[in-house]
Design a protein that fits this description.
Helix 7 (141-154) links the parallel strand 4 and strand 5 (159-163). The protein is built from ten helices and eight strands. The model has no long low-confidence stretch (mean pLDDT 96). By secondary structure, it is α/β, with parallel strands linked by helices. The structure holds pantoate. Pantoate (PAF) binds next to strand 1 and helix 6.
């Protein structure tokens, strides 16, 4: 659909759900740099209802379309694709796109259907826009791994790039959900990063994975109103149990700060 806009250069896409913050702006600027002056940068802004398994979460998700347009403009985006749900989905849609290995663990275990919704919408966006490249952040590390698998197994001619996590000065990973935190939880949330780094150091100095995860969970849950969803140390590629400690690993956390679920992670090795 947007392919005719593509000249000889790359067409680099950054799919988003809007409520753009500095993390997204960083991805958009990276897309601009990757596309160069001869290429095209496309941002999609679409709050995908199909990937929300909790209607309250969807209702609470911030919507800032005008500010999103300004952000895209200031980051050098050429085209913003901002469809309505009706444009994206027929009422009687009946095709699903499911990844069945990487999606069963971590966030997939507590958000049934979420990654199928992500795969469906990203597959549709790739078909509609036909980018040469797409950039996704490593904060959603599992999503990035699953989308690499989607592209590989479904032969999408798109090169996927993973971008480093963008953090505030206090270390908290930028997320549209941060705006929903109470002041107390917003003040406490940078601890996630602090505890992740302490855990990474402990693991890289030889501590056992199970002990590292248990300690990180206990530290998080010592904050009033915080409940860990998962704290797991897994193989960074398979997202399953570590079978070879020499391979790159991932320490990933999801925790409820009151009603807001935050995620963060760090790669680690020893
Ligand atoms: O990471 C997101 O914002 C969304 O999951 C994505 C990739 C835009 C699909 O809706």
């Amino acid at each position: 659909m947007l392919a005719p806009l593509r000249g000889k250069g790359k067409m680099v896409m950054v799919p988003t759900m809007g409520a753009l913050h500095e993390g997204h702006a960083t991805l958009l600027r990276q897309a601009r740099a990757l596309a160069g002056s001869s290429g095209t940068v496309v941002a999609s802004v679409f709050l995908n209802p199909v990937q929300f398994n909790d209607s309250n979460d969807l209702a609470a998700y911030p919507r800032t379309p005008e500010a999103d347009m300004d952000t895209c403009r200031s980051c050098g985006v050429d085209v913003v694709f901002m469809p309505t749900p009706e444009v994206m989905y027929s009422g009687d849609r009946s095709i699903t796109v499911e990844e069945n290995h990487l999606s069963t663990v971590l966030c997939g275990a507590s958000r049934p259907g979420h990654f199928a919704g992500v795969c469906l919408v990203v597959g549709k966006l790739f078909n509609l826009v036909q980018p040469t490249d797409a950039i996704f952040g490593k904060k959603d590390y599992q999503q990035l791994a699953i989308l690499r698998r989607l592209v590989r197994d479904m032969d999408f001619p798109v090169t996927i790039h993973g971008a480093e996590i963008v953090r505030g000065e206090d270390g908290l990973a930028l997320s549209s959900r941060n705006a929903l935190l109470t002041p107390e939880h917003r003040a406490a949330a940078p601890c996630i990063r602090k505890y992740l780094l302490e855990a990474r150091d402990a693991y890289e100095s030889g501590a056992a994975a199970a002990a590292v995860c248990a300690e990180l969970r206990a530290k998080l849950e010592s904050i009033p109103g915080v409940q860990a969803d998962y704290v797991e140390l897994v193989d960074a590629e398979t997202l399953h149990e570590v079978t070879d400690e020499k391979r790159l690993c991932l320490l990933a956390v999801a925790a409820w700060f009151g009603k807001v679920r935050l995620i963060d992670n760090t790669e680690l090795s020893r």
